[in-house]
Each structure stands twice: as C-alpha cells, then as structure tokens.
Amino acid sequence: MSNTEQSVGIVAAQSAEFASALELCSGSVLPSYTLKYETYGELNAARTNAVLICHALSGHHHVAGRYHPDEKSPGWWDSMIGPGKPIDTRRFFVVGVNNLGGCHGSSGPSSLNPATGRAWGSGFPLMTVPDWVKTQARLADRLGIDRWAAVIGGSLGGMQALQWSIDFPERVAHALVIASAPKLSAQNIAFNDVARQAILSDPDFHGGDFYQQNALPRSGLRLARMLGHITYLSDDGMGEKFGRMLRSGEFRYCYDVEFEIESYLRSQGDKFANVFDANTYLLMTKALDYFDPAQAHGDDLALALRRAQAQFLVVSFTSDWRFSPQRSREIVQALIAADKKVVYGEIESSHGHDAFLMLDPPYVNLMRSYLRRVAEELGA
Amino acid sequence: MSNTEQSVGIVAAQSAEFASALELCSGSVLPSYTLKYETYGELNAARTNAVLICHALSGHHHVAGRYHPDEKSPGWWDSMIGPGKPIDTRRFFVVGVNNLGGCHGSSGPSSLNPATGRAWGSGFPLMTVPDWVKTQARLADRLGIDRWAAVIGGSLGGMQALQWSIDFPERVAHALVIASAPKLSAQNIAFNDVARQAILSDPDFHGGDFYQQNALPRSGLRLARMLGHITYLSDDGMGEKFGRMLRSGEFRYCYDVEFEIESYLRSQGDKFANVFDANTYLLMTKALDYFDPAQAHGDDLALALRRAQAQFLVVSFTSDWRFSPQRSREIVQALIAADKKVVYGEIESSHGHDAFLMLDPPYVNLMRSYLRRVAEELGA
Predict the structure, then answer these.
(1) DSSP secondary structure letter of residue B172
(2) Up-side HSE of residue A201: CA atoms within 13 Å toward CB?
(3) Minimal Cα–Cα distance from A354 to chain B, Å?
(4) Confidence check on the interface: ipTM exceeds 0.85, yes or no
C-alpha cells in the first residue's frame, strides 16, 4: 500500500462560527469565535472513522493537500496524510483545525474583535490546552462526530491528544502522543521565556497592539524563531548538516554570516517573522508552559489518566532534547500505572524534535501499522 | 590545609601599557594597547612559580580578593585562589588579566581610541584566542616570567590554556583545561549567533557606536545573557532549583513573571545588561566561534598538540551540555595520540557548565592535588 501513496489533492479550508460564549481556564470569556478547519476523506455512515490532527506551536488547519495546483508547499503533515499514507484518507475522515488564538483564520490576536472592529491584539485572552480541547469538542459536535477514531498530535499537538483522553474519555478511541511531554521542565519554560522577552521587548511590539501602529515586531519574532529552531534540531543532526562549514571558505572577522549554521538560522527566522503573528507565538508558548494535566490530581499523572478510555500510542525520538524520550516514558509509565493500553515507540533518529515531521522509516512504519489496526477495529 | 583557607585579602589592579604594534589574526593591527591585571602571592627568586588565570566570556582580571573591605563580592574565582586554597598563593604567584577587547580596563570597544579620543566602538578589531595568548605572553615578558608553572582556565579560559601549550610550548609547564572544548559545534555557534543577533538588532546598539549616542543596548544584552544562562545550567540542576515553582502560587495568565525560573533569568539578564559592554560580549562570542587549533593542522588536533611540552589536566562535568564531557574527551584523546602526559577528571555534578566556578568536592580535591604536585615539582 505504501507504493501507491497519493496526495489528498486540492483542498479548501472551511470556517465554523460559534456564537455561544466560551469560558476559558483563565476566567476570561470569549463571547463568540471562529474556527478554521479542513477535512480530507469521507465520514462513514456510522460516523466512527474521524481522526483529529492537533497542531503544534506554529502549525494550523492546513495539514495536507494544496489549495491550488501551483501552491509551493502542501499542508504541513502531507507526508503522513493521504490515500495510502499512514493516516489513510481512504479509511479515515481527517480533520485539521487551527487552534483558537492562532493566526491562520481562527479567532486570535490578529483577527478582528467584533466588539471593537479592530484587531484583538493584547485584548485576546491567553489559551490553555484544555481550552483548545473544549473548542475542538464543539467543532466535533458541529461535524456530528461523537467519538474520534483517533486524536493525533506531535509536541504541543500531543499534549492536546493527551488532554482529550482525560477531558472527554468517551469521545476518544485512540490517542497518539508524539514527541511530547506531560509538562514542561524549567529549562523548557526558560527557553520559552527568552523567546517571549525577545518579542515583548521589541519596540515594534507596542504592548501587543502593533496592528494599529502599522508596525510588526519582526526582530523579536525572528529571534524567537531562531532560538526555537535550535531546540527543534539535535546537536548531532546540526553537526552533520552544518558542522563548522563557512559561507565563504574563510573567516571574515565581522558580524555578517560566517558559518552556514548562522545563514540557515537567520533565514529561518526572517521567513517566519514575515508570516507568523507575534501575539500568537506568545500565546502558544504560554499554553505550553501551562500544560500540566497532573496538577489538578496532586501531581499524579496516573491519577489524571485513570479516567481515560482511549488506547495510546506514545512515540519519542532518541535525539529529541526538547522533549526527550525520558519525558515520553513518564507518560507511558503513568499510563501503565493507570492500567491503560499503551504502545510505546522510541525511534532512533538524528532529527531531534523535528523528527515528528520527518519520515524516518521506523516511525512511519509504526504509525502505519498502528493506524491500520485502528482502521481494522472500525471495519474501515 | 583546606581547614586553614584564607582570602588573598585586599588587592589592587595594575595596568601595563604596550606601545609596540600588535598584529592580529584578522589582519588588523592595534598600534598600542593597555592590559589590566592583578597578581596575588610572590614571584619566587627563580621566577618559576607563576600561574596565569585565563577568563571566560564575562570574566576579567579581578580573580580573587577584594578592592575594599566592604566590596560586596570578591574576585570571580576567589573560592579557588588564596592561601591554603587549591591555587595556593603561599606557593604560587598568580596573575589574572583582563583580555584585550574586554570591558574591565584593558583596551576594548568601550575604551578610548587614542587616535580619535572617542570610544573605539565598532572600530575595535575582533579578537581570537591566539591573539589573546600573544598579548598574555607580552605581559609575561613584562613581568619577567619566562615560563608559567601553570596556565589555567575554564570554558573559553580553557581554550586559552590549550592555545598557550601550542603557541608557546617552552613557556608552559602545565595547562589546566576545564569545562572546555577543542572547537565549537554547530549548536554552540547557533546559540552564540542568536545572542549576537539580539544585540545587533537592538535599536540602541547603533551599529556598535552607541557610546556617542548616550544609549545602551540593554535589551539585546539582557536577552543574550538570559539565553547564555540557560546553557550554563543543566536541565536537571534547573529542575531541582526551580522546577515549575510559581511566583504567586497560581497561574496569572499574563506575560509578567509566573514561574520562578522566569524571575531568575530576567533578573540575571537585567543585572548583566547594566554592567557589561555589548561590543565585548559580541567579540567574546566570536573568539569562541573562531577557536579551532586543529584547523591549521588538517583538522588533526593531535598534530596541533604534538609541539606542546606541557603536562595537562583536563576536567569536565557530567551535566555540562554546553561543553559536554565528550568534548573534553576529544582533547584527552588527541593528547594521548600526541604522546602527552594528561590527567583527565570527569566530575559528577548537577551544576552544568557553571560547575567550573563551583566547589563540588571531587573537583576541588582534584585541583588541589594536581596543583600540589605542580608546586612540589618547583620545590615551592
């Protein structure tokens, strides 16, 4: 089947408007909001074959396919989703959603606040993983999906999959938690805070209300992304790819690009700063910091997971130092202690945290075989 | 002897003026320059008991003692240097020097350019480790020191100790290379470049000539230091000290300090930005990036070290991920391949890279016993 992999083809985004108020973990209330989403494949008659893809920090609802035949890049997880791919759209009805607070069409800091007619900016409330899961559940209601065949996500997306299994136990058959962690470490939070301070201290940030100032905090967002990138790649992977390679073959003794790694990071930062919203970046890093499902259960993750009814696939990557295998093992140990069914895959890879977006064969094979079993359970 | 450890007491900095031109690796020539230094203990009649302390990124010549009885903190390595301490000033004549390009009294970007009467700023040339070693050798000449009993440094300081053994083989009896690396990895360079970009993109940097603008690039330097600090501490050490501890006991859902680690990092950044020079910070990170003694020898470190006549102590710390034990082992393997005498200590510590400034007992004991042997060789 892997020899006949195809693209989902041309896709279109959809919008769902929610007019009922949403109470958030922070205590703030959002009177109404929009969620942007995409679907691929067909929902079966029994409505049992739906799969939710949860995105990470810089992701969105455009998960697979292209909007136009000449679109440069397909959706961000196109490698994994399509006819004959591990998340097989001949079997599954796949839903991608842009999280609330995002900057790709769902309500967020850069979207218009209906109450003022101007961008929300600093007025948009902070989000948490449970808030997102709540909004995704409302979207599932709208789509007539009582229970997901699987909720799947990497990194921050994996946290949403885990939270789904806790908050809506009866609505998740399988949770696939990839390159994730049960909560952030002090070091994780520290990196996030440096990224935030870079944005917050950019004079063009204007306290979050730069939209009205015809300004963009590009410099801060660029630094945040450069720093993020270091934590997405492994030391070894970076060494293999860039090492100490020089741009011009010799030292130039100035602050322009000298090493290839500098060129790569700066250009990644520049590209990102032109397309992503700084307030969304801040909000996403805070949602990461806040995530801690064990907290309400005396810091006992097994206790938090006891209510889950899902089966779990947990995947980690050996060279991921942002959320190392040890962090995934904490989840696995808690699931075992909570008497849940769990498959754990620790994948040998030099791709670091980014490996969840890559196609290391043992990873692809694991995803494929696990999801084939999920489909077979459904008779799909 | 450790029970009778004493301070070196009240110390005073000295200046040495060098009027002969200094040709740098970059090709730039500095017509004259000042080096600020301090000494502790007495040079013996044979002038054989001198020890040079090389500093790291943010260090300087004030290594031990106090300038006034009420000075808040002593020199930065006071724990290691003094009567009865591992670097025992009853036996050794200890020299600390502020590297050229520094911001503590030696000529540097923030000092006056005699040719213009204004701060050097962007006009100060970039430095390399071999440049520093050359200036330190001139200082040794001035002090009448033909041969150091030991050249000692941690991190970037360790690189200087290694370079000394290569560039002036006959002038170094022992090189103590602590928490160092034979060259930076792509990841190391990447972190340095993010720090530099933070400074370079600060609107108050003014291309390095902020001195004339009555401005200080505090924001960029603060970010650089916050980021640096993450790489100086270990993930585990940070976890033990700060974990997910909250400042006010509960989430506040805003961008002010929430976690204690944020408070710590921001205050470290603020303090540093008020006392350190941004151009010196840039210059120091570049010297780190450039360091690669094997480069001129076909990337063969053993070949580079073959000319060394020193004996070596190499020390690493298990939780140091900036310059991990693996990087020290590369040095040790090259020394062995070059048929040099080397003692290697891999110290169990949770203090990360900063451990070289701490007093983990196995580290202190190793330094003490190694340096006792050095002193005994001298009959000191």
Answers:
(1) B
(2) 25
(3) 15
(4) yes
Residue with tokens 């020899």: A3
User: How does DSSP classify residue B148?
Assistant: B
Pairwise CB contact (< 8 Å): A223 & B198: yes
Q: What would the two tokens of residue B195 be?
A: 């720090």
Please state, in angstroms and as integers, the Cα–Cα distance from residue B82 to each residue in B143, B256, B348, B359, following that order.
20, 43, 25, 14
Residues contacting residue A118 through CB under 8 Å, at least 6 positions apart = A112, A211, A212
- Say which residue the tokens 């997306």 belong to: A157
For residue B282, list chain A residues with Cβ-Cβ distance below 8 A. 255
**Is residue A169 over pLDDT 70?**
yes
Long-range contacts: B2-6, Cβ < 8 Å, 24+?
Answer: B2/B84, B2/B368, B3/B84, B4/B83, B4/B84, B5/B82, B5/B83, B5/B84, B5/B85, B6/B82, B6/B83, B6/B84, B6/B85
Chain A residues inside the 8 Å CB shell of B262: 189-190, 193
pLDDT surpassing 60 at residue A3: no
Residue in B222, B239, B254 closest to A186 by CB? B239
Q: Distance (Å) from the C-alpha of residue A261 to the closest C-alpha of chain B?
A: 6
Q: In 3D, which of A87, A66, A88, A86 has the Cα closest to residue A76? A: A66
Going from the C-alpha of B285 to that of each of A101, B150, B376, the distances in angstroms are: 37, 25, 37
Two tokens, residue B163: 């370079």
Query: For residue B379, what pLDDT is reported?
Result: 83
Residues of A in contact with B230 (CB under 8 A): 187, 190-191, 194
Biggest alpha carbon–alpha carbon distance for chain A: 67
- Residue A327 has which token pair? 């962090």
Which of A191, A193, A245 should be substituted to probe chain B, the one whose Cβ sees the most B Cβ atoms within 10 Å? A193
Locate all alpha helices (DSSP H) within chain B, ordered by sequence.
Answer: 129-143, 156-167, 186-200, 218-232, 235-241, 260-275, 278-290, 301-305, 325-337, 361-378
Q: Is A239 close to B185, i.e. CB distance below 8 A? A: yes
Going by C-beta distance under 8 Å and a sequence separation of 6 or more, which residues neighbour residue B369? Answer: none
User: Residues of B48-77 as b/e, b for ≥16 C-beta within 10 angstroms?
Assistant: bbbbbbbbbbbbbbbbbbbeeeeeeebbbb
pLDDT at residue number B361: 97
Residue B118 identity (one-letter amino acid): R
In the numeric block, the tokens 């094997």 are attached to B294
- On whether the CB atoms of residues B123 and B28 are closer than 8 A, the answer is no
Residue A203 CA to residue B219 CA, distance in Å, equals: 10
Which residues of B are less than 8 Å from A226 in CB distance? 190, 193-194, 197
Q: What local confidence, expressed as pLDDT, does residue B231 receive?
A: 97
Reported as a single tens digit per residue, the pLDDT across A91-125 is: 999 999 999 999 999 999 999 999 999 999 999 99
Q: What element of type H or E holds A346? A: strand A342-347
